């Protein structure tokens, strides 16, 4: 009986049209006028708690150097993750860090 009731309760919930942003955005030349109506953002008076913006440096600063003559398909990291994003990317399915 519970399983028949649950979809009805979920159906009654009012959901936003789009998911709200989870991370801050670095705004540069944004948005182009043709995409103005597609911008998903918070209202000015709405309290927001978002994570800091993720930039390329967060993603690749821990990668080992690679030359044009590299023959290995996989390489080990030389250092532990430096950012929260790197820890997340290296984590396994059950949330444990893949770094020894």
Quick take:
This protein is an all-alpha fold and 100 residues long. Helix content is 23%, strand content 0%.
Distance, first to last CA:
47 Å
- Helical fraction equals 10-25%
- What count of helical segments does DSSP give? 3
Largest sheet data: none
Derived structural class = mainly alpha
Give a count of the beta strands, DSSP E runs of length 2 or more: 0
Strand content: under 5%
Write the H/E string, N to C: HHH
Overall mean pLDDT stands at 74
Question: Which value, in Å, is the CA radius of gyration?
Answer: 21 Å
What global shape is seen?
elongated
- List segments where confidence is low: pLDDT < 50 over at least 5 consecutive residues: none
Signal peptide: 1-16
Organism: Trifolium medium
Keywords: Methyltransferase, Signal, Transferase
InterPro entries: C5-Methyltransferase (IPR050390), SAM-dependent_MTases_sf (IPR029063)
Write up this protein:
- There is one protein chain.
- It is elongated and about 55 Å long.
- The longest helix is centred in the N-terminal third of the chain and has 11 residues, at 2-12.
- It is built from three helices and no strands.
- The chain has a domain at 56-90.
- It has helices at 2-12, 56-60, 84-90.
- The chain has 100 residues and is mostly helical.
């Amino acid at each position: 009986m519970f399983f028949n009731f649950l979809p009805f309760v979920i159906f009654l919930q009012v959901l936003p049209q789009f998911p709200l942003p989870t991370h801050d955005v670095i705004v540069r030349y944004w948005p182009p006028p043709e995409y103005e109506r597609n911008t998903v953002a918070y209202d000015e008076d709405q309290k927001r708690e978002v994570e800091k913006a993720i930039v390329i440096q967060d993603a690749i600063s821990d990668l080992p150097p690679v030359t044009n003559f590299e023959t290995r398909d996989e390489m080990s990291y030389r250092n532990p993750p430096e950012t929260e994003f790197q820890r997340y990317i290296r984590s396994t399915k059950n949330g444990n860090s893949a770094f020894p």
